[in-house]
UniProtKB/TrEMBL annotation:
Membrane topology of the entry: Single-pass membrane protein
Subcellular location: Golgi apparatus membrane
Keyword Transmembrane helix: yes
GO biological process: xylan biosynthetic process
One cellular component (GO) term of this entry: Golgi membrane
Protein name per Swiss-Prot or TrEMBL: Polysaccharide biosynthesis domain-containing protein
Keyword terms of this UniProt record: Membrane, Transmembrane, Transmembrane helix
Organism lineage string: Eukaryota, Viridiplantae, Streptophyta, Embryophyta, Tracheophyta
InterPro entries: IRX15/GXM/AGM
TM helices/strands, residue ranges: 25-44
């Protein structure tokens, strides 16, 4: 009996081991299969994802560049729409369509990229930036706090603040002192960065004086009241910048807003010159000023008309 029992035990023992080994082999095979499958899936995903991302990015970039070319001008319909809504704003200080249109036309005819200098932050500031698409637009503002606020509100806008030292009640004295220094500090052709002329702006960043400005708009600073800074300095400065161009021989389009007022009209005639006035609708005057030789010492060819305008 012992031997039979032992025999049964001996026969059963190998059977149990065989069955257990088979199960473990199947389990090992099952786990190995899914491990390999997982690794293959992971490797395939990592290899194909960058390709898809690059392809998608290239396609998007190609579509973007083809739709909005780096040097493509704004379509006429877009420009007309901008002018339409800007001139119909509820803001009481906005420009009319008749005032905006000549400036827009000058920017459209300007060679690309166009250099546009604007004195004053106004209701139309975003419009000027948009109309000079792909060009350089720089704004000069008298209020440094408003300039900082505006630049924070619109990071795409380049604003520089300037401290005006002139007063409107001094406008005739300033013209007289400028004429006395016309062959020295107040020359028509010079680098204002190094000038001590009372009417010249000399504290802007250096690169502002190095740019050949194609279009200049004077719509600031304040021109109300005898203690206000007036626009004498921007008008004189614009005239010098236009006559002192370095590389470009193209004429400079200078627009003076609120031309019906005494300061704007007298200083416009004195330093931008009546013979350069091509258009005026009362509110906006359009001057076209040519580059001059550095040895020139007069702003205007016709002194008679300017003298009568200054004394009026």
């Amino acid at each position: 009996m012992k031997s039979n029992n032992n025999t049964k035990l001996i026969l059963l023992h190998p059977y149990i081991q065989k069955q257990g080994g088979s199960n473990r082999l199947w389990l090992l095979a099952f786990v190995s299969f899914f491990t390999i499958a997982f690794l293959l899936t992971l490797i395939y995903t990592r290899e194909t994802s960058p390709v898809k991302a690059i392809t998608t990015t290239m396609a998007a970039g190609s579509a973007s560049s083809s739709t909005y070319g780096s040097n493509a001008p704004l379509p006429t319909t877009v420009i007309n729409t901008l002018l339409h809504y800007a001139s119909r704003s509820n803001d009481s200080f906005h420009m009319s369509h008749a005032e905006i249109k000549p400036i827009s036309d000058a920017l459209r005819k300007c060679s690309s990229p166009c250099n546009f200098l604007v004195f004053g932050l106004t209701h139309e500031t975003p419009l000027w930036k948009a109309l000079n698409h792909n060009g350089r637009t720089v704004f000069i503002e008298e209020n440094r706090y408003y300039a900082a606020y505006y630049e924070e509100l619109h990071p795409e806008i380049d604003v520089f603040d300037v401290q005006y030292t002139t007063k409107m009640k001094e406008m005739r004295e300033l013209i007289a002192s400028t004429k006395e220094q016309i062959k020295n500090e107040c020359r028509p052709v010079q680098n204002l960065l190094f000038s001590e002329c009372k009417l010249g702006i000399n504290d802007l960043p250096n690169h502002v004086y190095e740019v050949d400005w194609d279009v200049i708009l004077i719509d600031g600073p304040r021109g109300d009241g005898p203690e206000g800074p007036g626009r004498m300095t921007p008008i004189f400065t614009s005239g010098v910048l236009a006559r002192s161009k370095k590389a470009s021989s193209a004429k400079t389009h200078i627009f003076v807003h609120d031309y019906y007022r005494n300061v704007e009209r007298i200083y416009g005639d004195e330093f931008l010159c009546r013979e350069n006035l091509v258009e005026s609708n009362g509110m906006l005057a359009h001057f076209v000023v040519e580059k001059m030789d550095e040895n020139s010492f007069q702003f205007c060819r016709n002194h008679t008309s300017n003298s009568s305008a200054s004394s009026s």
